[in-house]
Write a structure and sequence with these properties.
The complex is a heterodimer of chains A (112) and B (116). Chain A has 112 residues and is mostly beta strands. Chain A is built from no helices and 12 strands. Chain A has strands at 3-6, 11-14, 19-21, 23-26, 32-38, 44-50, 56-59, 62-65, 75-77, 86-93, 100-102, 106-111. In chain A, strands 2, 5, 6, 10, 11 and 12 form a 6-stranded mixed β-sheet that branches. Chain B contains no helices and 11 strands. Chain B has 116 residues and is an all-beta fold. Chain B has strands spanning 4-7, 10-13, 19-25, 32-38, 44-51, 57-58, 67-73, 76-81, 90-97, 106-107, 111-115. The chains are: A mainly beta (112), B mainly beta (116). The A-B interface holds A 32, 36, 42-46, 89, 93, 95-105, 107 and B 6, 32, 34, 41-44, 46, 49, 93, 95, 97, 101-102, 104-105, 107-110.
Chain lengths: 112, 116
């Protein structure tokens, strides 16, 4: 079945460091890919998405490119801030479907 | 923009009692809503798909008699945890989409359940 694998955390970075959180997927068809963020004590918020190969999703300085050849959707940010500390979930949803499959989540700590 | 709201955000109940969590789509109609459960430091696991006007579809391993789902209207789905036990303590989150498959899915804020 469909699945999402993302790098284990926690990831600890200093402020202004470069962030990469790896995400790979297995899916039939051509899924849409998402990154969600969960801040402490809150629900999920959609961070960015990409719906087809080579699309780049971006928001709040975060970027991820849909790579069909490597079945990946790695999340990157050039300069993290303390306020970026959260849990990040990679997810996929197949075309025409509602069901969202989540990765295990990666906790990010950013130190001042 | 579209908003999905859950209530309550936090609930503490005694072991053996039942607790109801509501999920509302505030400015769109949702024929389908989803209920997820998240254990501490783990990912979200889909529990069931809630279909307006019909029975919910439960994922394998989820007890349908324990987690009762009712989707009585196009804007409200409820999850009732019956005869709750401490191991049911978790973060429950719902999501909804305005109709057509493939549309954006919106998540609620989540509900923290603690069973003592």
């Amino acid at each position: 079945g469909d699945s999402v694998t993302q790098m284990e955390g926690p990831v600890t970075l200093s402020e202004e460091a470069f962030l990469t959180i790896n995400c790979t997927y297995t899916a039939t068809g051509y899924p849409s890919l998402f990154w969600y963020v969960q801040y402490p004590g809150e629900g999920l918020q959609l961070l960015l998405k990409a719906t087809k190969a080579d699309d780049k999703g971006s928001n709040k300085g975060f970027e991820a490119t849909y790579r069909k050849e490597t079945t990946s959707f790695h999340l990157e940010k050039g300069s993290v801030q303390v306020s970026d500390s959260a849990v990040y979930f990679c997810a996929l949803r197949n075309t025409g479907g509602f069901k969202t499959i989540f990765g295990a989540g990666t906790r990010l700590f950013v130190k001042a | 923009g579209a908003v999905v709201s859950q209530h309550p955000s936090w609930v503490i109940c005694k072991s053996g009692t039942s607790v109801k969590i509501e999920c509302r789509s505030l400015d769109f109609q949702a024929t389908t809503m989803f209920w997820y459960r998240q254990f501490p430091k783990q990912s979200l696991m889909l529990m069931a798909t809630s279909n307006e006007g019909s029975k919910a579809t439960y994922e394998q391993g989820v007890e349908k008699d324990k987690f009762l789902i009712n989707h009585a209207s196009l804007t409200l789905s409820t999850l009732t945890v019956t005869s709750a036990h401490p191991e049911d303590s978790s973060f429950y989150i719902c999501s909804a989409s305005p109709g057509v498959a493939g549309n954006t899915i919106y998540f609620g804020e989540g509900s923290w359940l603690t069973v003592v």
